[in-house]
Amino acid sequence: MSIKLTSPVVPVEWLYEHLDADNLVVLDGTIAKAFDPLALQIPKARFFDIKQKFSDISNPFPSAFPSEKQFQKEAQNLGINNNSTIVVYDDKGIYSSARVWWLFKAFGFTNIAILDGGFPEWQKIDYPTEYMQKFEGVEGDFLANLQDDYMMFFDDIQNASKNETHKIIDARSWARFNCEVPEPREGLRRGTIPNSVNLPFTNLLEDGKLKSKKDIEKAFYMVAEKDEAIAFSCGSGITACVLALGAEISGYQNISVYDGSWTEYGALTAGNMEQPKTWTKDELLVYILIYVSHSDLKETWKEREYMLSRVEKGVYNRVFAQFEKDNDYQSIQNIIEAVEAQDYFRNDLADLFADIKLMAFADGEYSGMEQSLYNYLKKILIDG
């Protein structure tokens, strides 16, 4: 008996009932996993190795989009045929399985669905499991057919951001999108793609399963219109695919995923500062401190040491490079614009000016120029 899918998501009960279907292929798309003979899996599952087999490992950024030739060969090695029906799951509920689903769609294969709730839901119902096994079956006849509109890359997203050709929706958490917490990838700066909006992928989920279609549609209704072209981004192109899943369920048609996402964008634009209105609070803080420290035409190593105790070195270097390009008038305008954009309250400004004094006193000398500039900034930013 062969089966055909009618939805991009299936419940665990459906998979259990159809495990013996002739053309069914179950894929384990857990991202941080390697083959482990002691690990459990759904019966007959085949490990879909996103990191090593289905990514361009020559690319400096993680989980990069593979070539058509690579994807076709690795899919065939898993015994996947053109008439296969694929159900993919992961160990978090719905996470990296969405990336697997989107990759197949990007290479022209649509008879694939995500297991709602993934392996945790399968175990919760106490369905049978087995130890992980390497696939040793017959090579499949799967043929990849690259669909150009499914993925966007760096030049595409720069154009989309600058010219606003797409609504860019970021799947990261609110705290990461708003630069309130460091990025989990070491050395990667905080930030957001200009002209992007935030819809955390977790807003579509509850206990690892998709929320109701009505709730998902409501989440998208708040950020995008049905007829808009949409580009989804995240940290590294994984959870952006969860948003792509939600958008498809909600009836959006013109959707794509930015493959490199913030990991690529943040790295490739690290030498450039965005407009002051998009600066993070750390960037604004160190810009002001650098401005004050250079009021007497020199920055002492003690002042620099203080600044590096307040912000990451990468942030300092990036802001210092911008400061050197600006004249005095531009610096003041940048500071005013950034403070207004950050919507500082009086207590926030009090903390800011405390930092200025601490930095100025770091070398044991509070120069007349530094004191004058301190009073000037206080007048224009607090007293108005």
List the helices and strands and how they pair.
Layout: E1 9-10, H1 12-17, E2 24-28, E3 40-41, E4 46-47, H2 68-77, E5 85-89, H3 97-106, E6 112-115, H4 118-124, E7 130-131, E8 151-152, H5 154-163, E9 167-170, H6 174-177, E10 196-198, E11 205-206, E12 209-210, H7 213-221, E13 230-233, H8 240-249, E14 255-258, H9 261-268, H10 281-293, H11 301-310, H12 313-325, H13 328-342, H14 346-360, H15 368-383
Parallel strand pairs: 1-6, 2-4, 2-5, 5-6, 8-14, 9-10, 9-13, 13-14
Antiparallel strand pairs: 3-7, 11-12
**What string gives the helices and strands in order?**
EHEEEHEHEHEEHEHEEEHEHEHHHHHHH
Beta-strand residue fraction: 5-15%
**Strand order in the largest sheet:** 1-6-5-2-4
Q: What is the mean predicted local confidence, pLDDT?
A: 90
Total individual domains: 3
The 3D shape can be described as elongated
CATH topology of the largest domain: Oxidized Rhodanese, domain 1
Distance separating the two termini: 76 Å
Rounded Rg: 25 Å
Number of helices: 15
The parts where pLDDT drops under 50 for at least 5 residues are none
**Beta-strand segment tally:** 14
